[in-house]
Amino acid sequence: MSLPQDPHKSFLPFRNPFRMILAKGSYPSPELLSLLNNFEETLAERLKKLKLGNKEDVLHISWMRRAMESLCAIHTDIKTLITTLELPVCDWDDKWVNVYLDNSVKLLDICIAFSSEISRLNQSHLFLQCVLHDLVGESSKKFVRASSSLDGWRQHISSKNPRLEECFCIINNLAQTLDLPKIKNSAKGKVLMRAMYGVKVVTIFVCSIFAAAFSGSAKKLMDLNVPETCLWAEAFADLQTFVNSEIRNIYSSRRVTVLKELEAVDISVKKLYPIVGDGVNPIEAGVLKNATSDLGKSAEELSQGLDQLAKEIDSFFQIILTGRDALLCNIRVGIDSSNFAQPDNNVEGQAVR
Question: Of 77, 86, 248, 342, which residue is 20 to 30 A from 273 by alpha carbon distance?
Answer without folding.
Answer: 248
